[in-house]
Amino acid sequence: MKKRGVGIGCTWYGTGYGNGFPDVSSAFLEIHDDGSATVLTGAIDVGQGSSTVYAQIVAEELGLKPEDITVVTGDTDVAPDSGTTAATRQTYNTGNAVLRAVRQAKGKLQAYAARTFSCTTPEGIELKDGYIGVKGDPSRRMPLGEMVSTARLQGERFISAESFTAQTTPVNMENGQGAPYWPYAFGCQAAEVEVDTETGIVRVLKIVAAHDVGKAINPTQVEGQIAGGVAQGLGYALLEQVELKEGKIQNPALSSYLIPTALDVPEIESIIIEETESSGPYGAKGLGEPAMLPVVAAVINAIDDAVGVRITSLPATPEKILAALAEKEPERR
Amino acid sequence: MTQVIGNGSIREDAWGKVFGESKYPADFNRPDQIYGVVIRSTQAHARIRSINVDKARLPGVITILTAEDMVYNRHGVLFRDQPVLAEERVRMIGDPVAAIGAESLAAAKQAAALVEIDYEPLPAIFDPEEGMKPSALPLHPELFPDTNILYHLPIRRGNMDEGWTQAEVVVEREYSTQMVDHAFLQPEAVLAYIDERGHVVVQVATQYAHYDRGEIAHALGLKNSKVQVKTTTVGGAFGGREDISLQIIAAMMAWKTMRPVKFENTRNESFYSHSKRHPMKMYYKTGAAKDGRLVALEAKIIGDAGAYTSWSPNILRKAAVHATGPYEIPHVKIDSYAVYTNNPYTGAMRGFGAAQPVVAYESQMDLLAKELGISQVEIRMRNLLKVGSTTATGQVLTESVGAEACLKAVLPYLTGKEGRV
Question: What is the pTM of this model?
Answer without folding.
Answer: 0.97
